[in-house]
């Protein structure tokens, strides 16, 4: 049997923990039923870093929207595209980041851009006439631009693969896969089981520079050509150079034969 002093210490510890939990619960309960704002807590302080729509001036193009909640459908979709290959395949989308990559797609292949996220800090900060961001922002402000949403920097960071996003990200549609029927006597690169996304993206970029007609990604272990890391390493080449996944060498040989490549 424990001494009375030990029993008292255990009771005091349990009571202290219970009282902390009770104070936090009673502070949040009125807000949950709509009475008043919550008292200061770690959770409320974290949510306070994401501004509400009313915190921003409405002086931005009328066809733009604003997304401020990390629990919004847009934020959840971007996070899903970053982490899940299955999600990228189901939606036919991948996340691209940075002024150069998003700007190149907007200039050359705007139909591939589904949704652009733009940092509110970047948009509202003063910019000189020769600011390198001006061309991209002008194209996004045009009525014919893809869907654009202003987001707080913290939310943009949560929707990007890099640690320090440069201010813009987008969900881009996957281009149509390579069609071998119109590629007679063409240069084709085959990536046989290359699993590293950075290396795969670099080789896709090199193939485009060498004038290749397409890239075949052989085997289930081959890197996802539409993962954010592969797209970043390819520097846009994965959207201009046709790609095609093939399951095995038998399927690969069939594609090559349709391209007019004979087995040596």
From TrEMBL:
Entry's Gene Ontology cellular component terms: cytoplasm
RNA 2-O ribose methyltransferase substrate binding domain: residues covered: 95-178
Record bears the keyword Lyase: no
Record keyword Signal present: yes
One GO process term, biological-process aspect: RNA processing
UniProt-listed SMART domains: SpoU_sub_bind (SM00967)
InterPro entries: Alpha/beta_knot_MTases, Ribosomal_eL30-like_sf, rRNA_Methyltransferase, SpoU_MeTrfase, SpoU_subst-bd, tRNA_m1G_MTases_N
GO molecular function: RNA binding; RNA methyltransferase activity
Signal sequence interval, chain numbering: 1-27
Superkingdom, natural source: Eukaryota
Keywords carried by this UniProt record: Methyltransferase, Signal, Transferase
Record-linked PANTHER family: RRNA METHYLTRANSFERASE 3 (PTHR43191), RRNA METHYLTRANSFERASE 3, MITOCHONDRIAL (PTHR43191:SF2)
Protein name: RNA 2-O ribose methyltransferase substrate binding domain-containing protein
Native species: Corethron hystrix
């Amino acid at each position: 049997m424990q001494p009375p002093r030990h029993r008292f210490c255990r009771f005091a510890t349990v009571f202290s923990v219970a009282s902390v939990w009770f104070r936090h619960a009673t502070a949040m309960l009125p807000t949950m039923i709509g009475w008043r704002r919550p008292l200061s807590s770690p959770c409320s302080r974290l949510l306070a870093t994401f501004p509400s729509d009313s915190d921003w001036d409405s002086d931005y193009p009328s066809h733009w929207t604003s997304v401020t909640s990390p629990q919004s459908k847009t934020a959840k979709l971007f996070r899903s595209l970053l982490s899940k290959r299955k999600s990228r395949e189901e939606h036919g989308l991948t996340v691209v980041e940075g002024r150069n990559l998003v700007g190149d797609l907007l200039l050359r292949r705007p139909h591939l851009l589904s949704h652009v996220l733009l940092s509110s800090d970047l948009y509202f900060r003063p910019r000189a006439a020769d600011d390198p961001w001006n061309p991209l922002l002008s194209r996004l402000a045009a009525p014919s631009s893809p869907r654009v949403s202003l987001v707080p920097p913290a939310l943009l960071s949560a929707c990007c693969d890099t640690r320090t996003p440069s201010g813009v990200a987008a969900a881009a549609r996957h281009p149509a896969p390579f069609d071998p029927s119109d590629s007679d006597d063409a240069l084709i690169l085959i990536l046989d089981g290359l699993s590293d996304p950075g290396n795969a993206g670099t080789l896709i970029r090199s193939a485009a520079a060498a004038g290749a007609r397409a890239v075949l990604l052989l085997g289930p272990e081959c890197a996802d050509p539409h993962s954010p890391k592969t797209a970043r390493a390819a520097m846009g080449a994965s959207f201009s150079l046709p790609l095609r996944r093939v399951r095995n060498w038998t399927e690969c040989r069939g594609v090559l034969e349709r391209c007019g490549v004979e087995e040596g």
